[in-house]
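Course assignment 3, question 2. Fill in each field.
Student: A.L.
Task: Predict the tertiary structure for the chain below.
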Amino acid sequence: MKLIRALTFFLLTQSLFCVAQKQNNVWAFGIGCGFDFSSGSPVLLQTKMGTSEGCAAVSDSQGHLLFYSDGNRVYDRNNDTMPHGKGLLGNTGGWATNYGSSTQGVTIVPIIDDPYRYYVFTTDCIESLTPAYLGYLRCNLVDMRLNNGLGDVDTTVKNKILVGHIGEKAFAVRGAGCYNWLITHRYGNDEFLAFKIGASGIDTVPVISSSTTLDSIGEYSYDGGEIKVSPDGKTLITEASYGYMELFSFDNTTGRISNARFLDSVLGIGYGLEWSPDATKLYISNFAGRIRQYDFSLMPDINAVRSSVVTVGDSGSYGTMRLGPDGKIYMAKANQNTMYCINKPNLKGAACDVDTLSFNPPPTIDMHYQLGLGNPVPFHNDTLFMVNDTTLCTDTLLQLNGPAGYSGYAWSTGDSTQNITVQKAGEYKLQAFGHCPVQEFDYNINLQDCNCNVSIPTAFSPNADGKNDRFSVITGDLKSFHMEIYNRWGQPVFYTSVIGHSWDGTFNGIQCDADTYYYYVRLRCIKGQEIFRKGDVTLLR
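Answer field:
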């Protein structure tokens, strides 16, 4: 009969800590390009991406690619278009006729407490605006349970229009609670729109904030460039009009955007934006290719921040900037295979260390960078509970009990029940949904032979020929072991209580005579069974 043991995660918990997010470990961008940061540094990948600007990709909590999109198609992890992944209407047109040309044309936002579904938002290219093409913010839904786990677009939520008259800006950021915000801006007026996205879906009535420092707002104000929110979720930066850069306060509880302040008027359009990981530095790239740094550690003195500006690099070409999982900031040089990297973005001035990285794809493959590197995907920090390793006997079924009180469970085995039964060694992971953040558990099981099938030889020959040189008790894994050996006159010649030890046929370093010796063995098995053996063994020379 097989023994079933039930173990509850909380009873075995050793420690609790937050793990680094890996959902943004894989990027897909440009023409056929991608990065994988799983090794710590970016490794060039070949993808089916085809875009000059907007793009986005998302991975699972272990850093494995789930899907990516250029706003026209959605591709699965095998680089195949999802069955209903064609015909997305975003990120289309503009100066790059065949590729998407909306700065932040694609944004992926996960549904809170749902491990399978993701929204894919798209914006239109401002150059393509006509009376019938009004700059829409559209929504699509990808369900990873479809198409045998490769995912597909839910046709009931495809190209759903949320609002019109939107510029090329869209950025998703974590909320103060169990929700995210998607922030965009109307072109030609001063309105920010923030859509709240929670476990129940999208609140289609956005939070509207009016805030600007412009004396007059022209037709193309707030149309292109990026929106970025600082890592602490408090400050928003965007271009108002042709290099005229504005700062705003963002309330990640209410979605309100306020307190407009003029930052700088950069040479040419202020295109790419990024914050340092500690939010003390802001970087802006313009059409002239200059990378400018602003020291936000001087806030709230906005005049001091303006005066701190310094050019830290010159790429000769503009592009979006993106903070990598490695804490470095990257910027692509369009139509070339050169990537600019800010290695130490928290440091001031030249100490931030702007460098170039060159990747050389095979000459037979059409891969080259464009302007965009993609929008990051917002995730609330998972919490990982590390659990003690457990020994599982080969004939024992082990029931792993997930924590109670959650609305959904996702095991690494593919099971979605609260509890599962296993009989194999390995690492078992569980994500429990229904609370924010998602709780993640990690549990290791080791297989051991718990049966005590004891085998004791009747003779051995310690002559250093490599065969039967030691007297050993053969058994499975043990909790304890003791062995004593005596000569024919009852004198002890060897004893040990160390599991795995054996006798080499000597006493006090002197070889014992060929003769018959008597042993006494006491051992305890993994399951607790205690076994006694006694008998004789012949020492041969």
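Instructor remarks: Confidence is low (pLDDT under 50) at residues 1-5, 9-20. The chain has three domains: 3-11+382-448, 20-358, 459-539.
Grade: pending
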